[in-house]
Amino acid sequence: MKTDIPRVDVLGVKISAINMSIALEEIERWISSQERAYICLTPAHSIMDCYTNPDLYPLFNGSNMTTPDGMSIVWLLKLRGYSYVERVTGSDLMDATMRYSAQRGWKHYFYGGQEGIPEKLTKHFLCRYPDLKIVGAYSPPFRPLTPEEDEDVVARIHQAKPDIIWVGISSPKQEIWMASHVDILDVPILIGVGAAFDFLSGKKKRAPLWMQKTGLEWLFRFITEPKRLWPRYRMYPWFSVLALAQMLGFRKQEK
């Protein structure tokens, strides 16, 4: 699928130089044309996942949009000359798209979250946007689906006929799922939003706005879930070193 959005190499991951308005315009274009696309929300830890496991690069670079989901990535893109770039997180993109789509009649499907979370998510959004169309949800088990289970899920989704599937099963599982299903599902857009299901349903508290804007949201999350998030965030100092090396020309940059 052709797009005019430039993608900027950050340690081998091609990040889309976008802001929220550009993201919404592309989503509307894909739905209008009924093209098949998937979107990756990409913080620094996802880039480091790719760096330590190169098999993941094709999942992010093969997406139709890979958003800058982290202020450190936004700053890197701004330093590369893309002054208009803004952080596009899963929670923010989900809320903005729901608001944008309420008057357009787009249909939404939730794939992910623990039992009960999609229902809370549905209630949250319908309270905010009563005209929204949410046509189904599925909470997969915490294990790989059997071929029969996967076929059943695909059949359920086809019966619901959504325009967007929101995938919240953590990274990189959600990217693997989207890449393997984008050509199977007769759905215009798949969007992997990670923890957005938990934040927007009220299961977890999100960092204060000032921490989000100053690049400290990761710290807030680490303080609230240190045991689970330590393996992820311990790579952040190394990310900073590698990104600086790339900027100084010690590591190849691609445009």
Largest sheet: 6 strands, parallel
As laid out across the biggest beta sheet, the strand order is 4-3-8-7-5-6
Shape: globular
How many strands appear in the DSSP assignment? 8
Number of self-contained structural domains? 1
Helix content: 40-55%
* Uncertain residue ranges: none
Number of continuous helical runs: 13
Strand-residue proportion: 15-25%
Q: Which structural class is indicated by helix and strand composition?
A: alpha/beta
Radius of gyration: 18 Å
The overall average pLDDT, rounded, is 91
Structure write-up:
There is one protein chain. The protein is α/β, with parallel strands linked by helices and 255 residues long. The chain has one domain (7-247). Helices cover 48% and strands 15% of the residues. A 6-stranded parallel sheet has the order 4-3-8-7-5-6, sandwiched between helices. Strands 1-2 form a two-stranded antiparallel sheet. α11 (217-224) crosses α12 (226-233).
Labels describing this entry:
255 residues; single chain; 8 strands; 13 helices; two-stranded antiparallel sheet; 6-stranded parallel beta sheet; globular; alpha/beta
Write the layout of secondary structure elements.
Layout: E1 7-10, E2 13-16, H1 20-33, E3 37-42, H2 44-52, H3 57-61, E4 65-68, H4 71-79, H5 90-101, E5 107-112, H6 117-128, E6 133-138, H7 147-160, E7 164-168, H8 173-181, E8 189-192, H9 196-201, H10 209-213, H11 217-224, H12 226-233, H13 236-247
Parallel strand pairs: 3-4, 3-8, 5-6, 5-7, 7-8
Antiparallel strand pairs: 1-2
